[in-house]
């Protein structure tokens, strides 16, 4: 009879603790903007709490799920096909902030690039496992992996979402390397990919502006570098010990997206 795996108590506790800590900090960071937008300081923390509870439910279900079932052919390739269809379908929806990354239908929304991360992991895990003993083959092992990776990453780049595409590429190459693919094969794929990324950064105006503002945000403190400058002010004003929970000042409509993209700055300002 196979031995049942025990729960990693430290990992479990850290996961629960970080999730609850996130809910608390979302409240601190969003209370002011939520009051202004929705006339309720609990609007954003309420939504965050609901999704946290859903996440806990999914986590407990996953703890009791036999992951070996994901090794079935129809699940792996079915999920991959659905992912590709979603990544194509996203171009039929109106852009948000200049990008087509979401499929929105009334109260329901999904970001296909997030599904792509899961489907790529599951596909590579099954495919590389099937290629045990033949990992060093360029055409039988490495090329199929790169074709699937290139398809998913290419569709994500078109949204455009270069950051998520890079995450997919790093994940795929790392899994191939860990599975025993020859390093020179990884090098063959990495060089043209890095050249392409360089082209996307240098010859795309809005990405070049972001890169320049990241390197020197103070050069355009009221424009492209505004968010970075405000986040630096938040972290700097908090110092080592912080100003205290809910005592941060930059979230008072100075720091954009304080409860989401820049919540780290709020944490640094309030908790040190």
Number of helices: 10
List how many beta strands DSSP finds: 2
Task: Give the uncertain stretches in residue-range form.
Answer: none
| Straight-line N-to-C gap | 51 Å
The overall pLDDT, averaged over residues, is 86
In total, how many domains does the architecture comprise? 3
Specify the oligomeric state. single chain
Shape estimate = globular
Q: Characterize the main sheet.
A: 2 strands, antiparallel
Radius of gyration: 22 Å
Strand order of the largest sheet: 1-2
Share in β-strands: under 5%
The run of helices and strands is HHHEEHHHHHHH
Question: Could you estimate the helical fraction of the residues in percent?
Answer: 55-70%
- The assigned structural class equals mainly alpha
How does the SSE layout of this entry go?
Elements: H1 9-38, H2 43-63, H3 73-89, E1 103-105, E2 108-110, H4 112-130, H5 138-157, H6 162-179, H7 183-202, H8 205-215, H9 226-238, H10 263-271
Antiparallel strand pairs: 1-2
Helix pairs in contact: 1-2, 3-4, 3-5, 4-5, 4-6, 5-6, 6-7, 9-10
What do these coordinates show?
The protein has 272 residues and is mainly α. It folds into three domains: 65 residues, no CATH class; 136 residues, no CATH class; 60 residues, no CATH class. It is built from ten helices and two strands, in the order H-H-H-E-E-H-H-H-H-H-H-H. Helix 6 packs antiparallel against helix 7 and helix 9 runs parallel beside helix 10. The chain is globular. It starts with 8 loop residues before the first helix and ends with a helix. The mean pLDDT is 86.
